[in-house]
UniProtKB/TrEMBL annotation:
Glycoprotein as UniProt keyword: yes
GO molecular function terms attached to this record: structural constituent of nuclear pore
Protein name: Nuclear pore complex protein Nup155
Region: Disordered, residue numbers: 607-653, 984-1004
Main location: nucleus
Biased amino acid composition, Pro residues: 989-999
Similarity comment: Belongs to the non-repetitive/WGA-negative nucleoporin family.
Protein's UniProt keywords contain Transferase: no
Subcellular location: Nucleus membrane; Nucleus, Nuclear pore complex
GO cellular component: nuclear membrane; nuclear pore inner ring
Membrane-protein topology: Peripheral membrane protein
Organism from which the protein derives: Patiria miniata
Length: 1388
C-alpha cells in the first residue's frame, strides 16, 4: 500500500514541537535520575574509616516547626488490628513444651506452632486457618520457601520447612482459587492447602535450628543453636555421590553431613538471624552475642564460601572510635541485621541495628575515591568493614531526651527503619524513620513518627508490595547497578509499603504513606485543598514535585477518587505558581546553607553525575526545596546551568516556568519512563517447526503498553478538562494576575518587586507555547501506544516481516522516544505493512482503516484511509476475472488517489499501477499530483525565465513537478528496457531439471513496446508544457531522437529553440534542431545550423562529420533555392560549396598526414588541429601541406584556389613523380611502372580537364626521361596517358614537338633515337587499333601521321653511317607507313 506523504509545512512545525517537548521532558527525566544514592547521603567515601550522622538538626528535621507547619502530616496509616482466630487462642491452653510465631508475608499468612502442631492463617482477616499435625516432636522454627524450578509438580507453589530437634521436614504448599475473579498469584485471597505427606524428611542430628531462611532461587538455610550455618540440599533424584535431600554445615566443612553433630558442636553463641542479599548472592548471619559472619554464594548464587566474621566487640570498638561522644551502651546489643541490595546502594551492603536504634552500615568490598568509582555485581565480598554510624533521633544538641530504647525487634527495608521499643511487658512503641519526604538531598534527612502497639511484638516483617507495573529484569553486568529512585519518583507505580507486626494478641498492619497518600489524607482531613497544611505540603516538596504528586490524584479514574481528584486539581492550580520573567544573579554554592538556622547541604544532583551540575535557587529562610529550580530562556527549553560554583555573572532575564508545567513534565516523564528509553523492537529467533528465522518482535509487554497508555489518556483528559490553563496568558493581559495564583509562592528572587503586566504576559505566553508542545507530545504518545497495541494484536513479528530491510534496521535502533518524536515515517511504514497484510489476505480494509483513524488520527489520516481503499481496489483489479471489472476498479482507485495526490507517495502508487498494467492511470495521476503541488503554475514561469537561482519558490515548485513527472519517465524506462530484450535468445538454466515455468506477469518485448507507445500517446495528449519538456528531456537522454522528431506538438519547436538558446554548445541539441528544421521544411535555418556545427571549434566533431554537415547544408540550401530563390540565398549556397570544397581538401591533407605517422607528436598535433576546426585554404597550404611536403595536397589546393604558376605546377608534378618513384625503389621495374601509372591516372582524372594544372608536354617529357634513365619499356608512358583519356592526335603532337626540340638530354644519355622509337610505337598502336581516334578525325590523323613518318624517314636516312639501330627504326617506320596507307585506302 502506498501511504500519503504530507509535505505541508504544518508537519515540520509539529515535528519541531515534538522535538522541543521531548528535549524538555528529557531534562526532567534526567532530573529524576539525578538523585544521590545512600553512600553519598551518608558521605561515605572510603572503606578505611567511618563517618557519623544523626547529630545535626537537619538529619531529623521537625515537621511541626513553624517554618514547615506540617505537624499533622500523616506518615503511617492507622494500625489495623486483626485478632488471632479463636481456635488458636484455645491452643495456648494446650501448650506443653514450646510455642513459636512467625509470618509468611509472601502469601499473607501468619503461623503459630504449639508443641508439634503448626497452624497457618491469613493475618489480614484471620481466616483460612490450616494446620499440620503430622509431627511427633516439638516444632522449633518454620520457613516458607520458593522451590527450585523443575523439581516438583506445578501445583506445589511453595515449600513449608518445619524443624524439630529430630528431623527437618519439607511440606508442599498449594493454593486453589475460590472463584474466577481471584488471580492465580493472589495468595491473600486464595485458599491454602498443606500436603499431608512430607516431600522430604532428613534427620537433624539433634541440632536445634533457630531460624529458616531461603533465597529467591530456592536454597534453604538454617541457623543452628550450635552457631553453625546449615543448608538443606534437595534435588529431583539421587545421584552417584549425593542423596535427594541432605544437610550441609557451611560453618565447619563441606563434608559435615557425614559427621554426626554430637562430635562437633558449640552452643556458646547460637546463630539467631540470617539475612540474604539476593541481588549480590551474599548471606549474612548474626549470633546471639552479636557476631556477624559473611558468606559468599558465588556470582551465580550456586556455591558457598565463608568470607569473614566480625565480633560484636570489634564492631563496638570501631564505632566508639568514630563516635567518641556517644555512650558505649548505645552500641552494646545488636537486635537486627539487614542486607542492603544493589538497588539501594552500590557500596553499602549491610546495616545492623542496635538495641538503642543506632544503625551501623558496613561494606564487604574495599573502596576509595570519587563518587562514581562503584563496584560491579560480579565483585565478590572480601571483608566486613564499618563505614558509617547513624544515630537515632534524640542525639542533637537541641533535641528532647525522647529517643528509642529497649529495642527488641527491628526491620530495615528500602531506607525505612521500623523499631519496636518496649515500654513495658504489655506494649511497644513503634518508631518509623523515613527519608521519603526529603528526596534529592545531599545528606540523609529523615522524618520520625512513633505509634503505640498495645502488646509486645513477637515478629515484625514487611509485606511485599505488588508492583502496579512489573519491573524489568536488568541483565547481569559488571557495571554497578543504578540504585532505585526515591519514592516520590516511583509512587505512581508502587503501592504503599505495608508492615505486619505479630503478637500473642493478633496482627497489626500498618502502611507507610507515600507522598501522594499524605496529600490525599491531608485534603481528606481538611475537607479540601484550601488550607495552610496543603500549602505547606507544596512548600515541603516544592511546587514541581507537589504538582506532579497532585496529578496522580487528579488523573485518577477510580470512582472513589472523584472528590479527591477535584480537590487535587484545585490544589494543582492554586499552589502551582505561575511562569515569571526574572532577573537573577548566580550565587556561589555553599555546602553549609541554612535550613533552620543550622547547616544543610544544598539541593542538587549527585556530584560527578552524568546529567550535569545542579542549579540551585538563592538561599532562602525555611526549608530548602527538594529539587533545584532551573531557569529557562524564552527562546526554548534550557536546563543547563548559567554559572559554575563560585562564579558571578551579569544579571540576565529568563523565564522560570511555573510549578504546574514542571509538574506536568515530571509526571509525563515518570509515566513514560518504563518505555521512554527502551528499544521498540528486538530480534528473536523463531521457535516453530519450520526453518529458523530472525524475527523482529516488540520489546514491550502488553501490560506495560496498557498501563502507560491508560496513564497517558488520563493525563490527556486532565488537560482537556482544564483547558483554561492554556489560556492563562490572555487572562493575564486582560485582568493582570490570575485570581487563583498565589504570587508569593513563586520561587526565585526578582530584582525589585515590580513586574509589568506585559512582562508577565510574555512569560505566560512562553509557558503556553511549551504547554502546547507538551500536549502535542502527549497526544503523539497516546497514538503511538495504541498503534503498538494494535500491531501486537495482529502479531507484531508478522507485520514487521513485511517491512523493507532498511526500515527494519531503523526500527531496531529506535527507542520509544525516537518513535514518538521522530518516528512518523516508521509508523507510516508499520501501518502500510499492516494494511498490506489485510490486502494480501484478500480482506477488506474498511474495518482496520476505521480503527486506525480512531486510535491514531495524526499518524493515519483520512488521506491514509482513502489510500488504503484505493490500494485495496488495485489488489482486487489484479485478481479480477474480466477486463471490464478490472478497468472499472482501476479507474475508481485513480479517482480516489487523485483526491489526495498532493500528499501521496506517488512513486509507490505508480509502481502498483505498473504491475496492474494501468499506464493511463500512471500519467493521469502524475499530472494531477503535479498540478496540485504547483496550483499557481510557478514552475513554468521559473522555467521560461531561465531558472533564476533567486526564485526559490519557483525552484521548489519546479522540483515538485519534476518529481511527479519522474514517475512517468521511470516506468517508461522499464518499458524501454523490456522492449529491447530478445526473447529468442537462449536462457542458461541455473539448476538441473525441467525448465522453470514462465512468469505470467512478465511482460514480453512486444507488449512492452505496445504499452510504451500507448503511454507516450497518452502523455503527449496533455497540455502540460513542463511535462512535455520532461518527456522530451527523457527522449534525449535515452537517445530516442528520432521519436522526438516524430512528435507533432507545438511544444517541440519551443523546446528545441530554448534548448539551443541555453545549450548552444550542446552538440546533441544542435544536431536535433537542424533535423527538426529540415523535417519541417525550414531549410535555410537547417543549413545555417549545419554550417555552425561544421565550423564548431571542438574535438567532439570529427572532420568527416564536418564535411557531412557541410554536404547536408549544401543540400538544404539547394532545396531552399528550389522553393524561393534570392540573391542572398544564392551567395550563401556558393559560400557553402566553397567551404565544402576546402573541407574536402582539409580531409585530404588530414588523411595524408595520418598515413605518415600518428605516433610522432608533431604529426599528432597537426591531426588534432585539423580535426578541431575548419581551416582556410591559405593556412591549409602553408601550415600543413607545405610543412609536411604533401605535394598532391599542394597541387589540389593550388587547383582549388585557381592560382596558376607554371613553374610551381610543374615542380609539384615533378615532386609527386619523384616521391612515388623513391617510395617504391626496392620494387621491380614492372611494379614501379604500374604503381606510378596508377598514381598518374588517379591524378589525371582530376586535373586532365585543366591544361594549366595538367602540363601534358612537361609530364610526357619528364616521364620519358625517367623511362630512359630507368630503361623502362618505351611504350608505358604514352599508354599511361592513353589510359587517362588523352587523345592520340594530341599525344603525337606533343611527342613530335619534343622530337623537333632536339633536347640535348637524349644525346647525353646516349639515346638520341628514344623519342622516335616511342613515336613509332605510338603510331603503331594507332595502326593496330584505329578506333582509338574518332572516325571523323581518323582520315586527317592518318595524313598527319604519314607526313610525320615522311619527315622522320628523312631524318633517319640523313644519319651518317646508318647504324643498325637507325636502320631498324627506319624499317619500322616503312612498315608503319604501309599500314597507314592501307588504312587510308580502306577509309577511302
Amino acid at each position: 500500500m502506498a501511504r500519503p506523504l504530507n509535505i505541508a509545512p504544518a508537519l515540520t512545525t509539529a515535528k519541531e514541537a515534538l522535538s522541543a517537548a521531548g528535549q524538555h521532558v528529557d531534562t526532567y527525566i534526567a532530573q529524576d535520575k539525578g538523585y544521590p544514592e545512600l553512600t553519598q547521603l551518608l558521605n561515605t567515601t572510603s572503606s578505611a574509616h567511618a563517618t557519623l550522622s544523626g547529630i545535626s538538626d537537619v538529619d531529623y528535621p521537625s515537621l511541626s516547626s513553624a517554618s514547615v507547619g506540617l505537624a499533622d502530616l500523616p506518615q503511617l496509616s492507622p494500625a489495623k488490628r486483626v485478632p488471632l482466630p479463636p481456635e488458636l487462642v484455645e491452643q495456648f491452653g494446650h501448650m506443653q513444651c514450646n510455642c513459636m510465631m512467625g509470618v509468611f508475608p509472601q502469601i499473607s499468612r501468619a503461623w503459630l506452632s504449639v508443641d508439634s502442631d503448626i497452624f497457618v492463617w491469613n493475618y489480614e482477616d484471620g481466616g483460612d486457618l490450616a494446620y499440620f499435625d503430622g509431627l511427633s516432636e516439638t516444632i522449633l522454627c518454620a520457613g516458607l520457601v520458593q522451590p527450585k524450578p523443575n523439581i516438583f509438580r506445578s501445583h506445589i507453589r511453595f515449600l513449608l520447612c518445619l524443624v524439630t530437634p529430630v528431623e527437618i521436614v519439607l511440606l508442599g504448599v498449594s493454593f486453589t482459587q475460590p472463584h474466577e475473579d481471584v488471580g492465580q498469584n493472589d495468595y491473600s485471597r486464595c485458599e491454602m492447602h498443606l500436603l499431608p505427606d512430607p516431600l522430604f524428611s532428613i534427620q537433624s542430628d539433634n541440632t536445634y535450628m533457630l531460624r529458616v531462611k531461603s533465597t529467591r532461587d530456592g536454597r534453604i538455610f538454617l541457623a543452628g543453636k550450635d552457631g553453625c550455618l546449615y543448608e538443606i540440599m534437595y534435588q529431583a533424584q539421587d545421584g552417584w555421590f549425593s542423596r535427594k535431600c541432605r544437610k550441609v554445615n557451611h560453618s565447619s566443612s563441606s563434608l559435615s553431613f557425614l559427621v554426626p553433630s554430637f562430635l562437633n558442636f558449640s552452643e556458646d553463641d547460637p546463630m539467631v538471624e540470617i539475612s540474604i542479599d539476593d541481588s549480590r548472592h551474599v548471606l549474612y548471619t548474626r549470633s546471639e552475642k552479636g557476631t556477624i559472619q559473611v558468606y559468599d554464594m558465588g556470582a551465580d548464587g550456586c556455591s558457598m564460601r565463608r568470607v569473614t566474621a566480625v565480633s560484636h566487640y570489634s564492631m563496638m570498638k570501631h564505632a566508639m572510635y568514630y563516635a567518641r561522644t556517644i555512650d558505649r551502651s548505645n552500641f552494646k546489643q545488636i537486635v537486627h541485621i539487614a542486607a542492603i541490595p544493589c538497588t539501594e546502594s552500590s557500596r553499602l551492603h549491610l546495616v545492623a541495628v542496635t538495641q538503642t536504634g543506632v544503625r551501623l552500615y558496613f561494606t564487604t568490598i574495599p573502596f576509595q575515591g570519587g563518587w562514581l568509582a562503584g563496584v560491579g555485581a560480579r565483585d565478590r565480598p572480601v571483608t566486613l568493614a564499618l563505614v558509617h554510624i547513624r544515630l537515632p533521633p534524640g542525639f542533637t544538641a537541641n533535641a528532647a531526651q525522647h529517643r528509642p530504647t529497649n529495642v527488641h525487634a527491628a526491620l530495615y527495608s528500602k531506607g525505612t527503619l521500623l523499631l519496636c521499643a518496649s515500654q513495658n511487658e504489655e506494649s511497644d512503641q513503634l518508631w518509623c524513620l523515613n527519608p521519603d519526604s526529603f528526596p534529592f538531598q545531599r545528606s540523609l534527612m529523615e522524618t520520625q513518627v512513633t505509634h503505640v502497639i498495645d502488646s509486645r511484638t513477637w515478629v515484625i516483617d514487611e509485606v511485599p508490595a505488588v508492583p502496579i507495573l512489573t519491573p524489568r529484569l536488568e541483565p547481569v553486568s559488571d557495571k554497578p547497578r543504578v540504585p532505585d529512585p526515591p519514592s516520590v519518583v516511583t509512587q505512581h507505580t508502587v503501592m504503599s509499603p505495608a508492615y505486619i507486626l505479630l503478637s500473642s494478641k493478633g496482627s497489626y498492619l500498618v502502611s507507610k504513606l507515600r507522598p501522594v497518600d499524605q496529600l490525599r489524607q491531608l485534603m481528606l482531613n481538611n475537607m479540601g485543598p484550601d488550607n495552610p497544611v496543603v500549602e505547606s505540603f507544596f512548600t515541603l516538596h516544592k511546587e514541581d514535585q507537589a504538582c506532579a504528586t497532585c496529578l496522580i490524584l487528579a488523573c485518577s479514574r477510580a470512582s472513589s477518587d472523584v472528590q479527591v481528584a477535584d480537590w487535587a486539581t484545585q490544589a494543582f492550580f492554586q499552589y502551582g505558581s505561575v511562569a515569571r520573567l526574572r532577573t537573577y544573579m548566580a550565587q556561589p554554592q555553599n555546602p553549609a546553607a541554612n535550613l533552620f538556622g543550622s547547616t544543610t547541604p544544598l539541593v542538587g544532583q549527585r556530584p560527578g553525575s552524568q546529567y550535569g551540575t545542579a542549579v540551585t535557587s538563592p538561599p532562602t529562610t525555611g526549608l530548602q526545596p527538594s529539587v533545584a529550580s532551573t531557569p529557562l530562556t524564552a527562546s526554548g527549553y534550557q536546563d543547563t546551568p548559567r554559572t559554575s560554583a563560585g562564579s558571578t555573572t551579569q544579571p540576565s532575564n529568563d523565564v522560570e516556568f511555573s510549578g504546574k508545567l514542571k509538574g506536568l513534565c515530571l509526571y509525563f516523564g515518570r509515566i513514560a519512563r518504563p518505555l521512554w528509553e527502551l528499544h521498540v523492537a528486538v530480534e528473536a529467533t523463531s521457535v516453530d517447526y519450520g526453518p529458523k528465522r530472525n524475527l523482529l518482535v516488540t520489546n514491550f509487554d502488553s501490560s506495560e503498553l496498557a498501563w502507560v497508555l491508560d496513564k497517558m489518556k488520563a493525563l490527556k483528559e486532565f488537560l482537556d478538562r482544564n483547558s483554561q490553563y492554556t489560556g492563562v496568558a490572555e487572562s493575564v493581559i486582560a485582568t493582570g494576575m490570575p485570581g487563583f495564583v498565589r504570587p508569593e509562592s513563586v520561587i526565585g528572587r526578582p530584582v525589585g518587586r515590580e513586574y509589568t503586566q506585559l512582562q508577565q504576559a510574555e512569560a505566560e505566553n512562553v509557558e503556553r507555547k511549551a504547554l502546547q508542545h507538551l500536549e502535542h507530545l502527549i497526544n503523539s504518545c497516546c497514538e503511538v501506544l495504541e498503534l503498538l497495541q494494535l500491531l501486537c494484536y495482529h502479531q507484531f513479528h508478522n507485520v514487521t516481516a513485511a517491512l523493507p530491510q532498511e526500515t527494519r534496521d531503523q526500527l531496531k535502533q529506535m527507542t520509544f522516544r525516537d518513535l514518538v518524536i521522530n518516528g512518523k515515517e516508521v509508523c507510516d511504514m508499520l501501518i502500510t505493512a499492516l494494511i498490506n497484510c489485510y490486502i494480501g489476505d484478500n480482506a477488506t480494509t474498511d474495518a482496520i482503516s476505521t480503527k486506525l483513524r480512531d486510535i491514531c488520527p495524526s499518524i493515519y489520516s483520512q488521506e491514509d484511509a482513502i489510500c488504503s481503499k484505493a490500494s485495496e481496489l488495485i489488489k482486487g483489479a489484479q485478481q479480477a476475472q474480466t477486463r471490464s471489472v478490472k478497468e472499472k476498479m482501476l479507474q475508481e482507485s485513480l479517482q480516489l488517489f487523485k483526491t489526495i495526490s498532493q500528499q501521496l507517495i506517488l512513486a509507490a502508487v505508480c509502481s502498483e499501477y505498473h504491475q496492474a498494467r494501468f499506464y493511463d492511470g500512471v500519467v493521469d495521476l502524475s499530472l494531477s499530483a503535479a498540478s496540485k503541488r504547483d496550483p499557481q503554475n510557478l514552475a513554468l514561469h521559473y522555467y521560461k525565465n531561465g531558472k533564476p537561482p533567486e526564485d526559490m519558490q519557483g525552484m521548489q515548485a519546479f522540483m515538485a513537478r519534476c518529481e511527479c513527472y519522474r514517475c512517468v519517465t521511470d516506468i517508461l524506462d522499464e518499458l524501454v528496457l523490456v522492449s529491447q530484450e530478445h526473447p529468442t535468445s537462449p536462457v542458461v538454466p541455473t539448476y538441473p531439471g525441467p525448465p522453470p515455468q514462465p512468469d505470467p506477469n512478465q511482460l514480453s518485448s512486444q507488449d512492452a513496446k505496445a504499452y510504451m507507445e500507448a503511454m507516450m500517446q497518452k502523455a503527449l495528449s496533455c497540455d502540460d508544457e513542463l511535462f512535455h519538456v520532461a518527456l522530451y528531456d527523457w527522449l534525449m537522454e535515452k537517445g530516442l531522437k528520432d521519436r522526438l522528431l516524430q512528435i507533432t506538438s507545438p511544444y517541440v519547436e519551443q523546446y528545441m529553440k530554448r534548448a539551443a538558446q541555453y545549450s548552444a554548445d550542446n552538440l546533441h541539441v544542435m544536431d536535433l534542431l537542424w533535423k527538426y528544421h529540415e523535417k519541417t521544411g525550414n531549410y535555410p535555418a537547417a543549413a545555417r545550423i549545419l554550417l555552425k556545427l561544421a565550423e564548431r571549434h571542438s574535438t567532439d566533431v570529427k572532420l568527416q562529420q564536418r564535411i557531412e554537415y557541410l554536404s547536408r547544408a549544401v543540400m538544404c540550401a539547394k532545396s531552399s533555392n528550389l522553393r524561393t530563390s534570392t540573391s542572398s540565398e544564392g551567395e550563401f549556397l556558393q559560400e557553402l560549396e566553397e567551404k565544402l570544397e576546402v573541407a574536402r581538401l582539409q580531409l585530404q591533407v588530414y588523411e595524408a598526414i595520418a598515413r605518415h605517422s600518428t605516433a610522432n607528436p608533431r604529426f599528432k598535433a597537426a591531426l588534432i588541429k585539423l580535426n578541431a576546426e575548419l581551416v582556410d585554404i591559405t593556412k591549409l597550404y602553408g601550415d600543413f601541406a607545405d610543412v609536411f611536403d604533401l605535394y598532391e595536397c599542394q597541387l589540389a589546393i593550388v587547383h582549388c584556389a585557381g592560382h596558376y604558376d607554371q613553374q610551381l605546377v610543374q615542380s609539384l608534378w615533378q615532386q609527386i613523380i619523384d616521391k612515388e618513384l623513391s617510395e617504391n625503389i626496392d620494387k621491380p621495374a614492372d611494379g614501379r611502372m604500374t604503381i606510378l601509372a596508377k598514381k598518374l591516372q588517379a591524378l589525371g582524372r582530376i586535373y586532365s580537364s585543366s591544361e594549366r594544372y595538367f602540363p601534358l608536354a612537361f609530364l610526357i617529357l619528364y616521364l620519358e626521361k625517367k623511362s630512359c634513365e630507368l630503361s623502362w619499356h618505351p611504350s608505358w608512358v604514352f599508354r599511361c596517358f592513353l589510359d587517362m583519356g588523352v587523345g592520340l592526335p594530341k599525344m603525337l603532337s606533343v611527342y613530335d614537338g619534343h622530337f623537333k626540340a632536339k633536347d640535348p638530354f637524349w644525346q647525353t644519355c646516349a639515346q638520341p633515337l628514344h623519342l622516335l622509337i616511342v613515336i613509332c610505337a605510338l603510331l603503331n598502336t594507332f595502326a593496330e587499333s584505329a578506333s582509338r581516334v574518332a572516325i571523323h578525325e581518323r582520315r586527317q590523323f592518318i595524313n598527319v601521321c604519314l607526313d610525320a613518318i615522311a619527315n622522320y624517314k628523312v631524318e633517319l636516312e640523313a644519319t651518317t653511317g646508318m647504324p643498325q639501330s637507325v636502320q631498324s627504326i627506319l624499317k619500322n617506320f616503312k612498315q608503319l607507313q604501309a599500314k597507314l596507307d592501307r588504312l587510308q585506302i580502306a577509309k577511302t
